[in-house]
Amino acid sequence: MPFITVKVLEGKTPEQKRDLVKRMTAAVKESFDVDENKVFIFFENMKKEDYGKHGELYSYMDDKK
Amino acid sequence: MPFITVKVLEGKTPEQKRDLVKRMTAAVKESFDVDENKVFIFFENMKKEDYGKHGELYSYMDDKK
Amino acid sequence: MPFITVKVLEGKTPEQKRDLVKRMTAAVKESFDVDENKVFIFFENMKKEDYGKHGELYSYMDDKK
Amino acid sequence: MPFITVKVLEGKTPEQKRDLVKRMTAAVKESFDVDENKVFIFFENMKKEDYGKHGELYSYMDDKK
Amino acid sequence: MPFITVKVLEGKTPEQKRDLVKRMTAAVKESFDVDENKVFIFFENMKKEDYGKHGELYSYMDDKK
Amino acid sequence: MPFITVKVLEGKTPEQKRDLVKRMTAAVKESFDVDENKVFIFFENMKKEDYGKHGELYSYMDDKK
Questions:
Q1: What is the active site of this protein (chains A, B, C, D, E, F) (predicted)?
Q2: Measuring CA to CA, how many Å separate D25 from each of B57, D34, E7, E23, E43?
Q3: Residue A19: its pLDDT value, please?
Q4: Torsion F28-C46-A44-B26 (CA) sign
Q5: What domains does chain A contain, in order, with CATH numbers?
Q6: Cis amide leading into E2 (omega within 30)
Q7: Cα–Cα distance for residue pair E40/E47, rounded to 1 Å
Q8: Which of C19, C23, C53 is best to mutate for the B interface (most B CBs within 10 A)?
Q9: Is ipTM over 0.90?
């Protein structure tokens, strides 16, 4: 505890995720005073065509740029 | 706000998702009186062998039809 | 199918949620061509002190306004 | 109802998932006294490089073994 | 691993939940051959006015019965 | 993007959550090189009787200690 889910656009590298796991675990340890062994982190990678905001699908937004 | 997650069997096209993002965002704007720019939608695509109902895995249900 | 989760700040009335369920179900029926009886919607109500954005907890943002 | 999400490392076979759907549905029927037709189960398969625990990304843990 | 979320209408007692945790953990152990200490279960209790199906909010369905 | 959900036992104070939002947002900015304004964090507070691990409901574990 806690269990942390990070929903992000696909494309982040394992190294970036590794770095974030280290930093996030340290942040939780500091803020919530819990042991590092109790922090679980799950990444959920989202494709552009599975992400909608401002009434539009993100993959279509690229076309407009 | 709000953040909407749509968990659906894989196979919906980007066009169908784009259409739903438009309709859903308009629905939220009407019902919740929030600005379109505050509505975020995430699609989660599920394989048949990752979906169970009525005590059976959906991918096995096809065999029985 | 689909299963839809709407994460929103607490305070929306049952009437607003009822209205959104109607509109959302109709939107899914149109966009995904699925039967109304297959659409499930879950609301998750979030307190201001459980929502962080732009590096700040939302409940603290009010103080600054 | 209920709606059950099982987040697990990728690699479980359809047969294992089918077996778990049967057992889980029976367990819910026993414990919650609900009809089997009301139990929905979703599997979410996670890659090793999307799972962090104890301050480390799981895919890097293999290298240390 | 795995991490299991059970979304259910509020009202189940701690004893019912305790019984389901025991049965579910045993089911996962059998089906996925994982150690009991690796199974985590989270209950999410939903109010009737936060659950919509078949185009209607569940709390309004009671009125129609 | 990203959208981060933190599922934790209830009891953390708004100040602790505020501190974690600051640290987590900074961590994401560093690791993923994204702007602070794009990071959203949701806390989900869990009661002891809604959390099961090692085949037991957490609220019952206290009794055994």
A1: 2 (proton acceptor)
A2: 11, 9, 14, 10, 16
A3: 98
A4: negative
A5: 3-64 (3.30.429.10)
A6: yes
A7: 23
A8: C23
A9: yes
